[in-house]
Amino acid sequence: MTLHEIEKQANEIRKSILTAVYNGKSGHPGGSLSAADLFTFLYFEEMNIDPANPKMEDRDRFVLSKGHTAPGLYSALAHRGYFPVDELKNLRKLGSCLQGHPCMQETKGVDISTGSLGQGFSIAVGMALAAKMDNKSYRTYCLCGDGELQEGQIWEAAMFAGHRKLDNLVLIVDNNDLQIDGKLDEVCSPYPIDEKLKAFQFHVITINGNDMSEISFAMKKAKETKGQPTAIIMRTVKGKGVSFMENIPGWHGKAPNEEEYKQAMKELERIS
């Protein structure tokens, strides 16, 4: 796919995020929208995966450490062909395969169940280490929230990954600068994120995470990096693509009502 085609796909995924959360009457649109470009690039361009064989042994792995942004992951999986797009309307409903946080037993394409913040990155480090020990070529990608970096377990995992030189591991930080209680630096600042990760022996790349060309550049550099893990710090806009959601902390975990949903979809249709 060309970058333009991937951008158009990302816009469709944003629409699906809103449709899922609206129909579920709950969920987390803000951080799902900020990371929509990343979800799209990973599943449509970057990762070695096969929707027809979701448990393929040599597939690349993805860990959504900030598991509450499952609507973004589910939308990417649906559009990539793991399950019907219409299933997104069943988000968070009893009996649905799409629960509020990713569940590997219920949802095709989900590599690991996540939701308790801080733990996903440790799991990703274990996956990357397993590949090294088994002489496998698959790579592991992990998406964390910037507020999630307040969890101490993140830094224990980073210390281990750097020490073990896990160059098949890519940590991606969705740095939209907002968490549920407000601005990151006002709640509990993790800055400077880049210097801290460098101290743990990571190759650090800082990009505009809502720019497909910059995501593409960073992923290429990550593959070229040998002897150390890579961290991609994505500066993003929370609620990206919907004017009244952008940079508003209240949209961290709230579903739009009917009027808001229609307005949001109208804005995204104009982008199409």
From TrEMBL:
Residues 8-267 form the Transketolase N-terminal domain. InterPro entries: THDP-binding (IPR029061), Transketolase_CS (IPR049557), Transketolase_N (IPR005474). Its cofactor is thiamine diphosphate. Pfam families: Transketolase_N. Signal peptide: none annotated. Keywords: Metal-binding, Thiamine pyrophosphate, Transferase. Belongs to the transketolase family. This is Transketolase. It comes from Aequitasia blattaphilus. The lineage of its organism: Bacteria, Bacillati, Bacillota, Clostridia, Lachnospirales.
